[in-house]
Structure formats: C-alpha cells, structure tokens
Amino acid sequence: MGIMPTNVALQMAADAGMDLVEINAGGDAPIVKVMDYGKYKYEQKKRAAEARKNQKTVEMKEVWVKPFIEENDLNIKMKKVFEFLGDGNKVKIAVMTRGNKKVLARGKDAVPELFARIVDMIGDQGSVVSQSKPDERTKSIVIAPTK
To answer: pLDDT value at position 8?
Structure first.
C-alpha cells in the first residue's frame, strides 16, 4: 500500500471503527496496522491461557531409604519411584546415613552399592541426572524419566 501519513492512516482506522496499532517503531518509518486492538488483546490472552493449560509441570518427588534396607522394603519403595516416573516427574532418592560411628564406618560401601541396585532396578525407565557430592552427609541421586 505504500507509506502514508499517520494522520491519514488514523482517519482510515477511525472510519473503519478500528484502532491504529504501532507494530515496529524502530525503522525509518513506523510500521502500523489497522486492527481491533481489544479483540487482538483478548485473543492473545486466550492463546496464553490455552498454552498454560496444556503445559506439563515436572515436579521433584523424594523417596527416602536407609543404607541397609531389606529387599522387600526396597521393592515397595521402588513401586512408588516407578509411579512417579510414570507420571513424568523427577525422583530424588535420598539415603539416610545417620547413626553412630560403627554404622557409618560399616556403611561406606553400602550407599554406592544401594544406588547401583536402584539404577539396575530402574533400567531403561529412567536415567540418573545428578548425584550428591561425596562429602555430603545425605547421599542422593536424581532420576529423570526417559521419554
């Protein structure tokens, strides 16, 4: 259509019962569009609401275990882990390493062995995203679901 003076474009928009909306003011000449601004804002709001409704939020679920957990107790905890992974959530598996010095001295190899068992049980349903640092009192791993 070409470049026209702003007052002419404003008069055209007013005659059509619409608004003159500035799209880009950074160029040599400002770029404007004739539209119903209220309807445009309403449609933008509806699109944003629809996008939020369809958005999936990933939560971090946490499961606590002890270093010397029995096999059946671990299976019960793992059912919950699989349920969380199935829902698309990340799971933090934390190991309680509290106790007297004998338990802590005896449990130095227990936590890595437990984590290895857990990772074997999970298989291809999840993958380890992060692990706690070796000097932290509470050891943990974070598992994300595979897609």
So the answer is: 78
Half-sphere exposure of 25 (CA within 13 A, CB side): 4
Instruction: Divide the 147 residues of the chain into consecutive groups of 10 and give the mean pLDDT of each group.
Output: 69 82 78 85 92 82 88 93 90 79 61 88 88 79 88
- Cβ neighbours for 29, distance < 8 A, ≥ 6 positions apart: 3
CATH code, 6-53: 3.10.20.80
The answer to whether the pTM exceeds 0.90 is: no
For residue 21, the model assigns a pLDDT of: 81
Name the residue ranges covered by the structural domains of the chain.
Answer: 6-53, 60-145
Instruction: State both tokens at 11.
Output: 């008069």
From the candidate CATH numbers 2.60.40.10, 3.30.110.10, 3.40.50.1000, 3.10.450.30, the one assigned to the domain spanning 60-145: 3.30.110.10
DSSP3 helix / strand / coil % (the chain, rounded to 5): 45, 25, 30
* pLDDT number for residue 31: 80
Q: First and final CA of the chain: distance in angstroms? A: 50
**CA distances (Å), 6 to each of 12, 21, 32, 141, 142, in order?**
10, 11, 9, 62, 59
